[in-house]
Structures are given as C-alpha cells and as structure tokens.
Design a protein that fits this description.
This protein is mostly helical. It has one domain (43-428). Helix content is 78%, strand content 0%. The chain is built from 21 helices and no strands. The chain has helices at 2-15, 20-35, 45-55, 62-75, 78-90, 97-112, 115-132, 137-147, 158-167, 171-177, 179-200, 210-235, 241-259, 265-298, 301-312, 316-333, 336-353, 358-371, 380-389, 393-416, 419-428. Helix 4 (62-75) runs parallel beside helix 13 (241-259) and helix 7 (115-132) packs antiparallel against helix 8. The longest helix has 34 residues, at 265-298. The chain is globular. The two termini are 43 Å apart.
Length: 431
C-alpha cells in the first residue's frame, strides 16, 4: 500500500507540472515521513545517504564533460559545418534539406551523445531554411525531432554512460553495441523521409560539385574525427569513458581556439555555465531517483513486477515483448533518467537470469526510452523542436507517426536478433 502511495504521489506531482527531480524527491520523502509512524520504520538519514551514493560515481563525471563539449560545438560552428557537409552529400536527393536533417543528426550523434542537444543544434540551423524552401513546418520539426533520437544510441552516448553506472555494465561495450542499431535507425528514417518528400514533391538542393563536396569534407573533418577519438580510446583501453570525455572537451577547445579561431574566453565561460546548469539538473534527478529506486526495492517492487510478468507467461520472447511495451509506455509519461534509475535494477537481474545478454538489453532499453522522446505527453524532443519552430506539439506528433512505427520496428528487430547489437562488442572485447 505504501508503495502505491509513493508512486501515486510521484504521478500527481508530475501531472501538476513539477520538475521530475523534485517530484521524485518529494515522493520519496513523503514515504519516509509516513513510515516513521508505522512498523516499517526507516531512518530519515537514509534519504541523504542514498542521494549521496547515487551521484558518487566516477563514471558520472563523463556527463558534464560531454555536455560541455556539446555546448562548445555549437559555439564554434561545428554544427553548421556538419550540416553543410551533410547537405553536400544528400541535399540533391528527394527530400533535400529533410534528408540533410536526418544525416546531420546521425553525424552529430557521434559528437554530442544527447538527443536534446542534437535536436536543438540541428533544428536551430535547419528549420528556418526548410520553411523558406516550402517544407511544411510540422513535417520539418518532426524530421529533426525523430532523427535526433539516434543521438543516445550511437557513441558517445550520455544515456549509455548513465546506464553503465547504474547496473555496472562496460560503457565501452554499450557504445559499440549501439553502432549497428544506430545505423539501422538512420537508414530507416532516411528511407521514410525520402519517400514522404518524394510523394509530397518537396524541393531538393542543387547538386554540389566534387570540389564543393571535398571542400565541405575538409572543413568538417576536424569535427568528424571527435567520435573516433572518443570511442577508439575506450575500445583500445587507452582511456576510461570519463577520461575520453575530458579528451573530447579539450579537443573541441583546441578546434575552437587554434583551428577555427572563433572561440573567446567569454564563450568558453558561457558554455561552461550552461553545462553546469544541465549537469545540476541531471545529477539532482540521479540523486532523488536513487532514493526512490532504493525504496522501491525495499518494498519489493522488483519481485511484484517479476511475479506479475511470470504469471502471464514464462516464454522469453513474450516477456521481452511485455517489457518493451512497459518501457514504451513509461517513456511516454516519464523522463528517461528516472525510468532507467528505477527500472534498470529491477529488469536487468530478471533478464540476465533468463539468459539475455546485459549489453543487448541495455541497448534495447535505451532505444525504448528514446522513442518516448517523440511521443506525448512528455516527448522532450517534441517540446524542444516546438519551441524552436513555433509549431504545436500535437501537429508535430501527427507528422512523427511514420517515424514512430519505423523506430518500433527497429526496436523489435534488435530485440529478437541479439547478434545485431552484440557483433561489435564480441569483436573488440573478450566476452
């Protein structure tokens, strides 16, 4: 009953528009206050202890560094160069700038590791240009929002860093596990975009010459090197994820100061300030979610869920389908971070006990939650793009529907064919 009360308080606060970190924290605090007067006494000091332990992880230091690198990329014009490079490659195909948006987000995903950062960066550059060329604003916004979901799947991924810290999985293996699924997502969304734009007769960009493509490549190659440095350092044991994030931040600083020469001290400080704010929000959510997850385990939430699912079926394929449906539903109504912090400690022991590879399920879980970023009522990508493009969330979602079904198809594909996810981790790691 107390568990139901705690979850109920969380959803009420969330529906009232309270920030998720505060909603989770107050729900957990309310639970601890209630149990002081019951036989289920739990010391209040555990509130502070669990919150502190939630953020006391070396791996989590990678998050502010990746965010800082992403902010610097926007300041130094890396995003614009990536868009120009993508335009030189695919702008002349059916879809024009819509294809550029899909391609640019795929390339950006290897630099920022954040769906929100990719959506904001590419949306700011492309949405005004797409509107000028006659693209329906809702469709333009849907393309950018959907394409940005590949960001946390292709390394480096902030979501994989967090998941690795939560359930103690190799971040390097998670990074590699996301490469092929990310490529499938990109190809699928590119194909859908091509087909829609062809049927609607949207304009294309003028075909660039070989010289122009080469020039765009040369201008963008310093930015394209960044993912290789980050992932390569982790795979070959040169650096930890945290150390590679630091290398990425210093590399972008080097680009801005010595290569592009457009980075000032004030811009660096402003990027650091924005990264600090974003990190604070993430870490507060991690801290409050940790105490909530601990209390959920204490109340046997995991046992309840496992018994409930096993009472329906003990077939692995059916359990995976149920879990996917559960995660998709949660992704629609909650933010990604608390879902991972609360559900990962529950689901991973169940599935690994049934023989499911932890890296495989890690990628499946993150992809589930990424789909939630383009589905109301939470749908953070939709809200980001809505604020940039000035288009209503519901209008955008109507255009997102084809991408939603495509992404669900990719999700089911990697769920039931683990080799897609595990090929590269098994190739580079001794598993």
């Amino acid at each position: 009953m107390l568990l139901i009360t705690m979850v109920g308080i969380l959803f009420i606060f969330s529906l009232l528009g309270m920030e998720i970190a505060w909603a989770i924290g107050l729900a957990a605090f309310g639970y601890l206050t209630i149990v002081q007067f019951t036989d289920n006494f739990t010391p209040m000091v555990l509130f502070a202890q669990q919150m502190t332990s939630g953020v006391n992880s070396y791996v989590l230091l990678a998050i502010p560094l990746f965010i800082f690198a992403g902010e610097l990329m926007n300041v130094t014009g890396v995003t614009r160069r990536i868009v120009l490079f993508a335009s030189s490659l695919v702008g002349h195909l059916n879809g024009g700038l819509a294809n550029v948006g899909v391609t640019a987000n795929f390339i950006m995903s290897g630099c920022s590791g954040s769906a929100l950062a990719d959506a904001a960066a590419t949306g700011t550059v492309l949405l005004p240009e797409m509107e000028k060329r006659g693209f329906k604003p809702a469709f333009s916004s849907a393309v950018i929002a959907s394409a940005a979901t590949v960001g946390p799947i292709v390394p480096p991924s902030i979501s994989f860093v967090l998941l690795g810290a939560i359930v103690n999985i190799s971040v390097g293996q998670l990074f590699l596990g996301g490469v092929i699924p990310g490529m499938i997502m990109f190809i699928s969304m590119f194909g859908v975009t091509w087909w829609i734009c062809r049927s609607r007769k949207y304009p294309v960009e003028q075909r660039t010459t070989k010289q122009e493509r080469f020039s765009a490549f040369i201008d963008g190659i310093p930015a394209l090197i960044a993912p290789g440095i980050i992932v390569g350092a982790i795979i070959f044991g040169v650096a930890t994820p945290t150390e590679s994030a630091a290398v990425a931040a210093f590399y972008v600083l080097f680009l801005g100061i010595f290569v592009y020469r457009n980075l000032s001290i004030m811009q660096i400080l402003n990027a650091a300030s924005l990264a600090a704010v974003s990190t604070s929000v993430i870490m507060l959510t991690v801290a409050t979610s940790k105490i909530f997850a601990w209390l959920a385990v204490k109340e046997n939430l995991g046992v309840i869920l496992i018994n409930g699912m096993l009472s329906i079926t003990d077939e692995l394929w059916a359990l995976l389908l149920i879990i996917n449906a559960l995660l998709l539903l949660l992704g629609m109504i909650m933010e990604i971070l608390p879902i991972m912090l609360i559900m990962a400690p529950v689901l991973f022991p169940l599935l690994t006990g049934l023989g499911v590879d932890e890296v495989h399920f890690g990628v499946v879980m993150v992809l589930n939650l990424m789909i939630g970023m383009i589905t109301p009522p939470i749908g953070l990508n939709l809200f980001i793009i809505s604020s940039i493009g000035g288009v209503g969330v519901i209008e955008i979602f109507k255009e997102v529907v084809p991408y939603f079904f495509i992404l669900v198809g990719v999700l089911l594909l990697i769920t039931y064919i683990p080799a897609i996810t595990l090929f590269l981790p098994e190739l580079f790691f001794d598993r």
